[in-house]
Every structure is written in C-alpha cells, then in structure tokens.
Amino acid sequence: MRYFKLCVKLNHHFLIILLLLYGIDSQGFLNWLFPNLKDPPKIEEKAPKFKYKGCGVATSKQTAQRRIVGGDDAGFGTFPWQAYIRIGSSRCNMLMSIFELIGWKQCWIERCGGSLISRRHVVTAGHCVARAQPRHVRVTLGDYVINSAAEPLPAYTFGVRTIKVHPLFKFTPQADRFDVAVLTLDRNVHYMPHIAPICLPERGSDFLGQYGWAAGWGALSPGSRLRPRTLQAVDVPVLDNRVCERWHRANGINVVIYPEMLCAGYRGGGKDSCQGDSGGPLMLERAGRWYLIGVVSAGYSCASRGQPGIYHRVAHTVDWISHATTLA
Fold first, then answer.
1. Which entry of 278, 297, 312, 316 is annotated as an active-site residue?
2. Mind listing the UniProt keywords for this protein, alphabetically (predicted)?
3. Stretch (H or E) spanning 86
C-alpha cells in the first residue's frame, strides 16, 4: 500500500490531500476529485476584434528596452508567434491536471521555446521533445510576462496531440543533427493581436550577413539558474558556417557545422541565446513580414567570445516542416 501526500498552500490555508494510489483508477479518482475538470481543459478563446493580415505580421511595434544575454525586453505582442513550452515528468502525469491548477512547478522538467506556424502547429527543437510523450507537453501562446495576470490580453495554454521529430534527428556530443520538431496542438488557435503565426522561408534561402532576432525566456547569463519572467530578444548577425567553425576552433572547440545548421552571433560575444531558449525562434524581417530562419539548438557557452549560437537552419528542412503540418 503506497501513499502520497501533497501539501499546497491555497488562500493562506494548507490543504492536505491523501491519495490512495494502489488499486485505484487514477483518471476515475481525478474525475471524482474535480468533477468539472477535463484534461486537457477546453478553453473558449474569445478573440478581440482583429483583422488577420497573414503570417509574420506583428501588430505591436513596441521598442525594446534593456536585456536573453545582452538583449532586451521584447515588448508585448512584438513576436506574436512566440510559444512557451513545458515538458512534464512521466512520474507526474497522473496528477498533472492538479499540479497545473495549483501552480506546482516541480513536474516541469524542461522548458523550451517554440514558434507558431499555423492554427494547429508549433515548431520547436527536436532535443526538447524527442523523449517526451504528447500528454506531458503544454504549449502557451500569447504570453509575455510568465504567470502575470496584468497583461493587456490573456495567454492561452494548449495540450499537444502529436509530436513529430525530424526523422534524421540525432543526439550528438556536439550540436544535435536535424534539431527540429513539429507539435500538433489539441485544438485550433484563434489569431489575435498577440497570437499569430510566423512565415516559413523558401527552401534554400540564404540569410548570410543579415541580422536576425532570437527571443525567449532563457538565462540572462551563462550558467545562471535565474530565468526572466519577461520575454527577451536580441539581434545577432547570420554567419557563414565555415567562419563559425574557425571561431570555435580558435577557442579549442572542434565542432562541425553541418548544412542543416546555422550560426548567428558576434565574434566578441556579448549577445546570444542561452539555456532555456532552446526551440525558440531566430527570425528575420523582410518587407514587413517576419520569417522563421532558425530554431535555437546549441551553444558551448552563452555570449562568449568566438562562440556564436548554433541554430537549426529552417530553410534546409522547410519541406519536411510543411509536410508535417499536413499529417494531423
């Protein structure tokens, strides 16, 4: 006979729930405990008046302020395709709905970024979700300041129906190969001023020498466990792959940058994506529309000299990404 005690502080009172786990149907227990709760919860999004102008159009033009590493607060709605992804522990699956209600964070073992590309699909890094089960993943759209109720428009959280990791994805001691995945959400997304998809680039597009933006809620300094609550963004130039290799080797790092990878950053460092930004977008604006050109993948440090960030190159696998959105 096994017992599990869960103590939570609600309205300044302690509620002790004693769960008898042995011999009890877990879903039946949850239905009894919370008769009005369904997992994943079905939320009716009441969209404000909004004229959708196509992919890659941000309605907010707020200017960034100070701070990702060396970056800035992005501004509410500046990147309406930005997704906040949480991957839960399998041991917590039975009680995940309860933990979501009470805000218990220990069940989330991984936090990543992502990019909305359609009403039902989000692109993220393969290494974020390669070992995850769809029922353990939650995707939040429209968030700017995490866990804030004071934003101009609300955020919405979705369950995940399917996870499609690129068939050539491979964990490696260096940057992971073909580090991209497509998540199918459990319901359609209603586009709003702060929730809209980003465009995909044409196959083979080259962005060498152009400045892109990386965004996320990752660490503000290398090795830091502290994470900002406010979405951060940083501008970084796209580099030639061979230049990226030479810079790394000058620092004693023998890395191979394969064709499906892309590097972006400064030789002197100072600006970069960091831990917790994985899966998030590297994006570039052309003629008033934003394009997803990279997915945050790897880096040997954050914003260190001669160690630019390594991204998955979306233009290399855009055909697979587009096909993945048609399968479910």
1. 278
2. Disulfide bond, Hydrolase, Membrane, Protease, Serine protease, Transmembrane, Transmembrane helix
3. strand 82-88
